Amino acid sequence: MVTIRNFSCHIRFIACAVALGPAILAAQMPQSAPASAPAPTSLRDRVMARILNSGPSAWTPAQIANMARLRDAAIADPYALDELRHLSDNIGPRISGSPQAQQAVEYVAAEMRSLGADVTLEKTSVPHWIRGIETGSLVDWKGMTPGTTQKIVLTALGGSVATPADGITAEVVVVNSWADLKALSDGPAATSLKGKIILFNKKFDKQLAAQEGGIYAYGDAVQYRAAAPIAGASVGAAAVLVRSVGGADYRIPHTGMTMYTDGIQKIPAAAVTAEDADLLADLASQGPVKLHLTLTPQTLPDAPSYNVIADWKGAEHPEQVVIVSGHLDSWDLGTGAIDDGAGVVVSMQAIHLLSRLGIHPKRTVRFIAWMSEEEGSQGAATYIKEHAAEAANHIGAIESDLGAGHPDGVLFAGKPALEDWLRPVAQALEPIGANTFRSSPETGEDINVLTEKGVPSFAPSQDGRFYFNYHHTPADTFDKVNPRELSENAAVMTVLAYALADSAEPAPR
User: Fold this and answer.
1) Mean pLDDT of all residues in the chain?
2) What is the C-alpha separation between 374 and 128, in angstroms, rounded?
3) In a 3-state reduction of DSSP, which class is residue 279?
4) Residues 61-95 pLDDT 10s
5) Residue (of 134, 132, 168, 474) closest to 299 by Cα position
6) What residue spans define the domains of the chain?
7) Tens of pLDDT along 409-465?
8) Distance between alpha carbon 194 and the CA centroid of its chain, in Å?
9) What is 132-296's CATH number?
10) Residues 6 or more apart from 414 whose CB is under 8 A from it?
11) Count of CB atoms within 10 A of residue 42's CB?
12) Under 8 Å CB-to-CB from 249, ≥6 apart: which residues?
């Protein structure tokens, strides 16, 4: 069945359902329908058609049976979990340009070849940034014990420049928002910020994350991580700190890419833990606080790397492509299990299951392990450049990049008609609780340009309440993945990829 969450007007639906109780029972009795029944026009008829899934389907009963086979096989098969264990535990962190990233490319390519897929390594150029030493300590504050320091737990933000080798010592100024910074720099209470370290103390909204999913809280706070060095340098700061963008207060810092711009000096940037941000704010409210900060990252010349592309060729229209994908690179603090090893392995499992069950859809299912999503999506940019002339033959694109939490269904970007068109797929996923299909402006960073070109795009709709507790931290490790939920994600990716690749006509676009 289709859940009430699929309806845009919940109240009207409930009213109709109550009024139509006897009609629903009658409609469920075996009966033959006219060969060319008119399209429903009234609200009552539309609701009934939606409940009973009347009307033509893009898939035959045999194809819908294949969806069920793939779903059940994904739940039972440990392939994705085994592959994730190897990527995260054996290979480890896979930051762009690193030996581990190259090892992951070679490993995934070999796995795909062993399944019988046609594998291509698509060369791309990626950033090569190395973290180095990162330390922070309070050296002067009100009430300190003479001759002591206090450790501040921090980590350099991706792409940060270095401090001098022996570090910098400066007063810390705490601001909670862009408005606070503006007031300090040019407002009535103007304060000179030249040579100081600015802490952007924007808190991650845990309540919002619990109610709506972490992606909303993340989006609200991540702007500070991205733009803090530009804003700080524009008022003369010597360095910037940002409160970690995440929900877990276990004194672990969250890294992530930061930004610089031409014409404004590049200054060092680091994330501090939530606890240490609170400490700095408390002490700064009592009087001047000085911090000694040492960061020694290096930005080396761009390095060669690869997108891994593996085609399970279509039986009738091999030139038409459905992408199933995740990004292979990760940050270097953890082992990249949920970001985004999980997305890679559930996409690998789509090819694995099609191969194991001997299913050859009409169109090609193309697995892609994207490279360097974390540091600027260079792999995706290369793919778009190399395949620009083939955009019309991209029938659909799926990306998983929000961990491995339970999927309640699918997000789609494209025509509203996709929701009705995909209803049989939603019903095939109902036994695992993944039958909520809803529209979204975008579905994934690496497939975003394809979305903009009109390609229907999709992502698992996952439980994101806890993802940002671990995302970009040392705690992004294999143990954080629930095996059952990883299998559910593999089922969603596999069933959706097969449905898009084997439908009678391509998805509406």
Assistant:
1) 90
2) 12
3) helix
4) 999 999 999 999 999 999 999 999 999 999 999 99
5) 132
6) 4-52, 70-127+302-502, 132-296
7) 999 999 999 999 999 999 999 999 999 999 999 999 999 999 999 999 999 999 999
8) 37
9) 3.50.30.30
10) 451, 454, 455, 456, 457, 507, 508, 509
11) 9
12) 273, 274, 275
70-127+302-502 and 132-296 share one CATH topology? no
Cβ contacts of 428 within 8 Å, gap of 6 or more: 64, 67, 68, 71, 495, 499
Which residues does the chain have with pLDDT short of 70? 1-55, 189
CATH of region 70-127+302-502? 3.40.630.10
pLDDT tens track for 171-196: 999 999 999 999 998 877 677 899 99
Decide the pairing of beta strands 457-462 and 269-272: unpaired
State whether the Cα torsion 437-443-447-448 is positive or negative.
Answer: positive
Which phi and psi angles does 3 have, rounded to 5°? -75, 160
Q: β-strands 290-295, 317-327: how paired?
A: unpaired
Whether 166 and 293 have beta carbons less than 8 Å apart is answered as no
pLDDT of residue 211: 87
**C-alpha separations of 182 from 197, 221, 280 in Å:** 15, 18, 20
Active site residue 390: no
* Intra-chain end-to-end CA distance of the chain, in Å: 25
Residue 325 and residue 447 in contact, taking contact as beta carbons nearer than 8 Å:
yes
Cβ-count burial 171-205 (b if 16+ within 10 Å, e if not): bbbbbeeeebbeebbeeeeeeebeebbbbbbbebb
**Sheet containing strand 154-156, strands side by side:** 150-152, 134-140, 290-295, 168-175, 197-200, 239-243, 269-272, 154-156
Predicted local confidence at residue 213, as pLDDT: 81
Q: How would you class 149 by CB atoms within 10 Å of its CB: exposed for 0-12, middle for 13-18, buried for 19 or more?
A: middle
Residue type, 68: A
The Cα–Cα gap between 13 and 23 comes to 14
Strand-strand pairing, 298-312 and 118-130: antiparallel
Catalytic residue among 373, 374, 419, 485: 373
Here the tokens at position 325 are: 């994908």
What pLDDT does residue 343 have?
A: 98
- Structure confidence at residue 460 (pLDDT): 98
Beta bridge partner(s), residue 407:
462
